[in-house]
């Protein structure tokens, strides 16, 4: 445990030397978090890989921590450490499973077309309707969505009514405590990204996913048109995807 004296020394003189003294005092916490999730990570990743990434998050947490906000450092650091680890896991999945930029673009086209049809039809479009709108056959459409790496990008993995982070945990058939922990941390990471949206975007997501309002009802509550709510929703979704992909692509470029 790091003493208040050492923290005060760092706050008064933010040198790398003082920072590293605090980092050394919390390396055990990185190992603790890695051990809790290790059995649920993809094959091929070692504990040392994850500890290295977690240490990057720890350094960032020390540099950004502000006790004035009233949070315990461990609580704040947990988000940064696990966020760094999960970003690395996504990078590993994306690079190791061979998702090309062309394939990534195609997946995004499917998601955007699905959202567009949903708003136009005021219901969830069928596979056939989506495929037709994309000028592709249903077999090719299903093949794309059945590839397991698509889950990294496909909207419902992060943004369905059960995973958006506004709703209570439900039984999703999780078999181990490690998997349960991993899912909760994914939700925490998503909620951190949601905080970067503006207030109106956050409100629209909350009403749409948690309270299951449609765009017309949300518009009436916020005194905005239905089409405007649709635009806000779409922009919020794109912003969240950008926040996730910005970090992943940055890691790929750095390692490339």
Summary keywords:
Butyryl-CoA Dehydrogenase, subunit A, domain 3, single chain, mainly alpha, 2 domains, 13 helices, Rna Polymerase Sigma Factor, Chain: A, disordered C terminus, 256 residues
Summarize the structure in words.
With 256 residues, the protein is an all-alpha fold. It folds into 2 domains: 4-96, Orthogonal Bundle (Rna Polymerase Sigma Factor, Chain: A); 101-255, Butyryl-CoA Dehydrogenase, subunit A, domain 3. It contains 13 helices and no strands. It has helices at residues 4-12, 16-25, 27-37, 47-64, 73-96, 101-121, 127-133, 138-146, 155-159, 177-194, 199-210, 215-222, 226-255. The two termini are 37 Å apart. Residues 148-179 and 251-256 have low confidence and may be disordered.
Shape: flat
Cα-to-Cα separation, first versus last residue = 37 Å
Model regions low in confidence, pLDDT < 50 over at least 5 residues: 148-179, 251-256
The total count of strands amounts to 0
- Spatial extent as radius of gyration: 21 Å
CATH architecture of the largest domain: Up-down Bundle
Give the helix tally.
Answer: 13
CATH class assignment of the largest domain: Mainly Alpha
CATH T-level topology of the largest domain: Butyryl-CoA Dehydrogenase, subunit A, domain 3
Q: Percent helix among the residues? A: over 70%
Number of domains: 2
**Helix and strand succession?**
HHHHHHHHHHHHH
Structural class: mainly alpha
What percent strand?
Answer: under 5%
Q: Roughly what is the average pLDDT, rounded to an integer?
A: 75
Characterize the biggest β-sheet. Answer: none
């Amino acid at each position: 445990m790091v003493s208040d004296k050492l923290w005060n020394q760092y706050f008064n003189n933010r040198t790398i030397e003082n920072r590293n003294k605090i980092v050394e005092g919390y390396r055990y916490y990185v190992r603790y978090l890695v051990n809790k999730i290790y059995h649920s990570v993809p094959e091929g990743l070692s504990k040392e890989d994850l500890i290295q990434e977690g240490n990057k998050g720890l350094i960032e947490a020390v540099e950004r921590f502000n006790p004035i906000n009233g949070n315990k450092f461990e609580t704040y650091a947990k988000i940064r450490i696990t966020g760094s680890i999960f970003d690395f896991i996504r990078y590993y999945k994306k690079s190791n499973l061979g998702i090309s930029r062309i394939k990534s673009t195609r997946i995004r086209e499917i998601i955007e077309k699905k959202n567009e049809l949903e708003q136009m039809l005021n219901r969830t479009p069928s596979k056939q309707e989506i495929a037709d709108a994309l000028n592709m056959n249903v077999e090719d459409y299903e093949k794309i969505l059945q590839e397991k790496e698509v889950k990294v990008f496909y909207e419902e993995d992060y943004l369905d009514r059960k995973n958006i982070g506004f709703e209570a945990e439900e039984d999703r058939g999780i078999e181990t405590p490690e998997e349960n922990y991993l899912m909760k941390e994914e939700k925490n990471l998503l909620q951190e990204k949601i905080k970067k949206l503006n207030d109106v975007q956050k409100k629209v997501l909350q009403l749409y996913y948690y309270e299951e309002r449609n765009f017309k009802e949300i518009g009436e509550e916020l005194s905005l048109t239905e089409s405007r709510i649709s635009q806000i929703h779409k922009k919020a979704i794109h912003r969240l995807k950008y926040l996730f992909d910005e970090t992943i692509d940055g890691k790929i470029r750095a390692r490339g």
